[in-house]
Design brief:
- This protein is of the alpha/beta class.
- The protein folds into 2 domains: about 160 residues, Peroxisomal Thiolase, Chain A, domain 1 (3-Layer(aba) Sandwich), CATH 3.40.47.10; about 150 residues, 3-Layer(aba) Sandwich (Peroxisomal Thiolase, Chain A, domain 1).
- The chain has 9 helices and 13 strands.
- The strands form 4 sheets. The protein has a 5-stranded mixed beta sheet with strand order 1-7-6-4-5, sandwiched between helices. It has a 4-stranded mixed beta sheet with strand order 8-13-12-11, with helices on both faces. Strands 2-3 form a two-stranded antiparallel sheet.
- Helix 4 links the parallel strand 4 and strand 5.
- Helix 3 packs across helix 4 and helix 6 runs parallel beside helix 7.
- About 45% of the residues are buried.
- It binds oxa(dethia)-CoA.
- The site of oxa(dethia)-CoA has 19 residues, from helix 2 and helix 6.
């Protein structure tokens, strides 16, 4: 597998920490110190599918292909206004593609899972040339905006890549360890005349921040160790660690474990917050368009999220 194009799109509404101070018992100082986040983008008038289609078009343009060249679309998404069909179907129509689409919900780890599926499809399906991966997320719509410990963390975004056959993927690992209670949201479904059980609506995400923090650091460290071993590489041989943008303290803990310089850890969490599975592909797009990625560089990607899902991979940048 080889990445040949990247794209991203973000909502226009900037929500700063001081704007949150207007309706939450919080402060810019607390949020910056505990998370590294200064502001995030939150959907106001946009539709998530518009952001997703823009990110997809940008990635196709960057790859030098049109929608006719796309053979499969993988869409990573947790929540959007459509319960059905899958967001991938909506994106397919918007960009004028005719290929099959598949949605996955692996929370913030979705991009790594999507790469794993893409690698398997490219390896086993002869006619498969280009796969479009679109990660489109609006976690802001899942939050209880009275819960200061969770709503301050998230922002909305879409990130996309086009992948084709190649041998840039040196190692990949995904895993799930059922820990629903650490981070979840339950909602009531449509009532029927037959329902007798009691149903719960948590009215937003329920998160044990400290548990998620510990799980995030311990699982990412394990994943990174494993993919380095799988690829026969050392931490020093990685040029950039492109990590899920959730909390600067989580990134710092991982950085200390691999004992690498800060300059190897690109970062945009300060401006966008945690955008779930869109965070890594959107960061890759920022780096690509900012000419911060050099051909031949080795990147290590690592993410974690509700589930508890985790994943990491090592890939050579060859654009
Ligand atoms: O993709 C996965 C998504 N989730 C995550 O990445 C979450 C991972 N966890 C975290 O990032 C951190 O645990 C948080 C940022 C959520 C919280 O930071 P913490 O250092 O673990 O704080 P804490 O939960 O230990 O809370 C410390 C204090 C508490 O007050 P008391 O009990 O000491 O009086 C909280 O009520 O900070 C309080 N607090 C706040 N204060 C001001 C919690 N949120 C806020 C807030 N503003 N926004």
């Amino acid at each position: 597998m080889r990445i040949i194009g990247t794209g991203s799109a973000r909502p226009s509404k900037v929500v700063t920490n001081s704007m949150l101070e207007n309706f939450l018992d919080t402060s810019d100082e607390w949020i910056v110190t505990r998370t590294g986040i200064h502001e995030r983008r939150v959907i106001s008038s946009e539709n998530l599918e518009d952001l997703a289609a823009t990110a997809a078009r940008n990635a196709m343009e960057n790859a030098g292909i049109t929608s006719e060249d796309v053979d499969f679309i993988i869409c990573s998404n947790v929540v959007n206004e459509y319960v059905t069909p899958g967001l991938g179907c909506v994106i397919q129509g918007m960009i004028g593609a005719t290929c099959p689409t598949m949605d996955i919900n692996c929370a913030c780890t979705g991009f790594i899972y999507a790469l794993d599926v893409a690698e398997a499809y490219l390896a086993t399906k002869k006619d498969m040339r280009n796969i479009l991966i679109v990660c489109a997320e609006e976690p802001a719509r899942m939050m209880n905006w009275h819960d200061r410990s969770s709503c301050i963390l998230f922002g909305d975004a879409a990130g996309a890549v086009v992948v084709t056959k190649g041998d840039d993927l040196k190692a990949i690992r995904v895993s799930t360890h059922c820990k629903v209670e650490a981070l979840y949201q339950k909602r009531k479904l449509q009532p029927t005349p037959f329902i007798t059980k009691e149903e719960v609506d948590t009215e937003g995400v329920v998160m044990n921040g400290q548990d998620v923090f510990k799980l995030a650091v311990s699982s990412s460290i394990k994943d990174i160790d494993k993919v380095l071993t799988m690829a026969g590489m050392t931490a020093d041989e990685i040029d950039l660690y492109v990590l899920h943008q959730a909390n600067v303290r989580i990134i710092e803990s991982i950085r200390h474990f691999v004992n690498q310089d800060k300059s190897k850890f690109p970062f945009n969490l300060d401006r966008y917050g945690n955008t779930s599975s869109a965070s890594i592909p959107a960061l890759l797009d920022d780096l690509n368009r900012g000419n911060q990625l050099k051909t031949g560089e080795m990147l290590l990607l690592s993410a974690f999220g509700a589930g508890f899902t985790t994943g990491a991979c090592i890939l050579r940048w060859s654009m």
